[in-house]
Design brief:
The chain is an alpha/beta fold. The chain has a single domain (2-331), classed as TIM Barrel (Alpha-Beta Barrel). Helix content is 46%, strand content 16%. It is built from 13 helices and 9 strands. The chain has helices spanning 17-34, 55-64, 83-96, 113-119, 123-128, 130-141, 173-181, 197-207, 231-249, 260-265, 270-281, 288-302, 316-331; strands at residues 2-7, 38-41, 70-77, 101-106, 165-170, 185-189, 219-227, 283-286, 306-310. An 8-stranded parallel beta barrel has the order 1-2-3-4-5-6-7-9, surrounded by 8 helices. It is globular.
């Protein structure tokens, strides 16, 4: 079973943004060492506690400090940008790091309304035009425009020896059907979706139209997981991101992911306690054996080709340790 990493580059209360970004790079290095297939970093705007508004910048930094792991965006929020510019950026990355670049595409705003308005005009119209944007991006990164297209003679130089691998990311049927229509691999964000994932993934596979000869539908399932030597320790580590999520929902948590001690001291209302329990149900929290078994069950249930794991802890060392324990249980025992 292939495993990968999704990193949101969270900032802990004990970190500066620079330290959080360096920790992100070190996580990619650790993932490469542990046998993870790919490392993706997310794009967020004006969200306190998240350090990366520009995956393409981080990918150049991470690519220079790794040698083999695939690296990519999770995701480029395409409604904010022109496809040509995105193609130029990821072609450049693929030229620097041949055969290693993924360009994950998403449609979400990734931040506040003010940030969305500052980034791009007519965001909702751009979301509506998402199919055209995806089509043109594919034309550019594959250097394969139809002769009648107005950009047929335009190149998103440099043209790399191996084109970036495009993925469409989503949490619902609309994204799945768009991925199927354009013959794109699909990454489903199970950790942030209440949709019927099994049905959506099956519909994607049934509707898939190959873009290239021999191409088959490919699915990544993204889940939230925290692993430690014991389930009790994993539960303790998970308290930090869970409390942070409660805080952010109230406009608090501006200083980032709280420590375990800070999280334990946070007083929850009855309603917040119920919300926390619901969030825990969407996570995998446990020892290596329990975590590995649940990952295998999810892969089987959703017929995923790969499981991508997002892990948030207060201490970077605990996050790296979680990925190590999972790799030892799942990757090394195959």
């Amino acid at each position: 079973m292939r495993l990968s990493i999704l990193d949101q580059a969270p900032i802990s209360t004990s970190q500066t943004p620079q330290q959080a970004l360096i920790a992100a790079m070190k996580l990619a290095q650790a993932g490469e060492k542990f046998g993870y297939s790919r490392y993706w970093i997310a794009e967020h705007h004006d969200l306190p506690g998240l350090a990366c508004p520009a995956p393409e910048v981080m990918l150049s930094y991470i690519g220079a400090h790794t040698t083999g792991i695939r690296i990519g965006s999770g995701a480029v929020l395409l409604p904010h940008y022109k496809p040509y510019k995105v193609a130029e950026v990821y072609n450049l990355l693929a030229t620097l790091f041949p055969g290693r670049i993924d360009v994950g595409i998403g449609r979400a705003p990734g931040g506040t309304t003010e940030a969305t308005n500052a980034l791009s005009d007519h965001f909702l119209q751009n979301v509506w035009n998402m199919p055209d944007k995806v089509r043109d991006l594919l034309y550019f990164i594959e250097d394969n425009f139809p002769a009648e297209h107005p950009y047929a003679n335009l190149s998103a130089a440099p043209i790399p020896p191996i084109a970036p691998e495009p993925w469409l990311l989503g949490t619902g049927k609309k994204s799945a059907m768009l991925a199927a229509e354009y013959g794109l691999s699909f990454a489903f964000g199970l950790f942030m979706s209440d949709s019927n994932a099994a049905a959506i993934i099956q519909q994607y596979k049934e509707a898939f139209k190959p873009r290239k000869q021999g191409q088959k539908p490919e699915v990544i399932l993204t889940v939230s997981a925290i692993c430690a030597e014991t389930t009790e320790r994993a539960e303790e580590l998970a308290l930090s991101p869970l409390i942070w999520s409660i805080q952010r929902g109230k406009g608090e948590g501006l200083n980032g992911v709280p420590s375990i001690e800070e999280a334990k001291q946070y007083v929850l209302t009855e309603k917040e306690s119920e919300a926390l329990q619901k969030m825990k149900q969407k996570m995998i929290i446990g020892n290596p054996q329990m975590t590995g078994q649940k990952l295998k069950e999810l892969r089987s249930k959703y017929q995923a080709d790969e499981i991508m794991i997002v892990t948030i802890t207060h201490e970077p060392e605990d996050k790296v340790r979680s990925y190590l324990l999972i790799a030892e249980e799942v990757i090394n025992k195959q």
